[in-house]
Amino acid sequence: MKALKNALPLLFSFLLATSGSAFAAGAIAVDDEQGDDEPGYGIVVGEDTREDAGREALKACRKSGNANCKVVVRFDKCGAYAASKKYYGIGYGSSLNKAKSMALDACGNSNCKVLVSDCE
Fold first, then answer.
1. pTM for this structure?
2. Cα(61)–Cα(12) distance, rounded to whole angstroms?
């Protein structure tokens, strides 16, 4: 994944959808193309499937004016995305703390920060 130009200001949209199903999934899509002033995000929770969540996260990311969105993580409970200017990591788990910790560990750089996270 290309380096983040500026990870301090966060742009992200929350699109919350409800589902009649007992199973719920979420996803995070990110636009972090090199040269962007600010990375863009789309995050959704409460979708019927991980595929639906990914599709809706892409829509939310693009709706915020981002052209190069990619789904970086799909999750059943909690998900997180951490990044620095050159590194990124994703996480998921049964709690927000677990997802954030996994994302930071996967990022592998002391400058990494959790940029977006949520639970269904």
1. 0.75
2. 7
* Chain centroid, CA 89 distance in Å: 10
Report d(CA 32, CA 104) in Å as an integer.
17
Place of tokens 């996994």: 102
pLDDT recorded at residue 32: 77
SS (H, E, C) the chain: CCCCCCCCCCEEEEEECCCCCCCCEEEEEEECCCCCCCCEEEEEEEECCHHHHHHHHHHHHHHCCCCCCEEEEEECCEEEEEECCCCEEEEEECCHHHHHHHHHHHHCCCCCEEEEEEEC
Q: Give the number of other CB atoms < 10 A from CB of residue 56.
A: 24
pLDDT at 38: 59
Q: Which pLDDT belongs to residue 67?
A: 87
Residue 15, pLDDT above cutoff 80: no
* Residue 3 pLDDT: 34
**CB atoms closer than 10 angstroms to residue 42:** 28
Distance CA 66, CA 32 (A): 9
